[in-house]
Amino acid sequence: MANYYSDHPEIAFHLQHPLMKRIVELKEKGYVDAKTYPDAPVDFEDAIENYKRILEITGDVAANIIEPNSESVDLEGPHLENGRMIYASKTFENLDATIKAGLHGVSMPRRYGGLNLPNAVFSMLSEVISAADAGFQNIWSLQSCIDTLYEFGSEEQRQKFIPRVCAGESMSMDLTEPDAGSDLQRVMLKATYDEKEDCWRLNGVKRFITNGDSDIHLVLARSEEGTKDGRGLSMFIYDKRDGGVNVRHIEHKLGIHGSPTCELTYKNAKAYLCGDRKLGLIKYVMALMNGARLGIAAQSVGVEQEAYNEGLAYAKERAQFGQKIIEFPAVYDMLSRMKAKLDAGRSLLYQTARLVDVYKALEDIQRDRKLEPEERQELKKYTRLADAFTPLAKGMNSEYANQNAYDAISIHGGSGFIMEYKSQRLFRDARIFSIYEGTTQLQVVAAVRYITNGTYLQIIREMLEQEVSAELQPLKQRVEGLVELYEKSVNYVKELGNQEAHDFLARRLYDMTAEIIMSLLILDDATRCPELFAKSANVYVRMAEEDVVAKSCYVLHFKPEELCAFRAVEPATEE
Hints:
Elements (H helix, E strand, L loop, with lengths): L8 H5 L5 H10 L15 H33 L2 E3 L2 E3 L2 H12 L18 H14 L1 H8 L4 H7 L2 H12 L4 E4 L15 E5 L4 E12 L5 E7 L10 E7 L5 E6 L10 E14 L5 H38 L1 E2 L2 E2 L4 H38 L6 H40 L9 H9 L9 H13 L2 H10 L8 H24 L2 H30 L1 H27 L19
Parallel strand pairs: 3-6
Antiparallel strand pairs: 1-2, 4-5, 5-9, 6-7, 7-9, 8-9, 10-11
């Protein structure tokens, strides 16, 4: 019987990373839960075995329930009835299966009914479910919104809402509006305090809300009258049981059909302030978005894997000119690149998740006691690293998912364009990944300060100090040559002293940064497990070399005065 976890040993490999021991130690807080909860681990080895069991269960559900339902869900999609969103019929089966398997509230502490899993394992679960159906992964993974309520809500709110999510109730984050997409400072949904009822009332419209008719919503709204920027926004909790919110429209989308994208109308809806006023965008949405971006990176890796699987299976079966097409250099080159992107992208995803795990666990410990000086330094270090890695993981994996899905169709030839083949659905599903939760261009904006202030270069140099196997030394030397070109390119852009040129070239520097870091990650993976990763390391480093050399050439020969050749229109001038 198929299993989307155990069929891919590359996932389990990342449970063996040396940093996992520190993560589990912090997450389990000395394994004190073992005294109270029978399923809590007693030591590191027990925790890892527990993670594997949960992943096995998820892999079984994904392969044998969610994936077989995926085509039906794609064809039916959700629909609207009397102001309510109704899932596709098979989506209800998927939800029932994940609830019965205990796959909700996975990141929450056991005292609220959660599984207390680290982000690295949550990301693995997300990848596995996404490989089966990326649209359903959206619905399931939005349970991670509860992390923000746990971090910033009151204990009364935690007690009220977290057990419900752990039991399987759904969540959404209601951020965007018709006039506020990427620019969330323009959010105008109005929040007014109701003194009589001791609650807040929300009025307005939200648009493009994933899983918008969920049970529990986190809502960004304008609480400070007369304001027009981010400082007037607060975060609120809306409970569907209280009423006041209707679904006005469900979007008809290119892909991820099972994931409902709703337009909502708030009419005097009762809500509760989460955390402090005025910090909704400045602090809480940033926490929400970072978690969501990690989730999209995992979703992307799942589709990268499934696209590769589809392309490989077809190439092994399809014969042309008297031989299987997998024997054609053009085809096996495509497949080897797909696999290399998958392995390197997955390595970047789990490295990012591990960095997030360390600082999140330390923040959680800090709620109970004062951190020791070395712990405070550790918190500062891993917060900075996670902040630097997250835009790379989201941006690069969302692009790789699109590329792998595109290549899967190419391998299928004309059949890939036919709706009966899964590759077309993967292609449609993947297209949104580089758009929602911050476009790739916004990931570049988030990363570029770490490029120009030397943070990434410092990270790369530290990574270069790691030993690789003798067989991989020639590849490492090639990466060292790329680092020289990268440093030269970054310095050149900084020395230009031209903001427009800096912004124009930022994407090329971002790609170079990510490809060098992923090269070093995959070399480390191949050193520790050559049977799984040596081929991908060889292919990926060569791909990175091909790209970094070309982009450095572009950057180092660019002149600011040439920008006018690229403008679609001339900039407006003052009269």
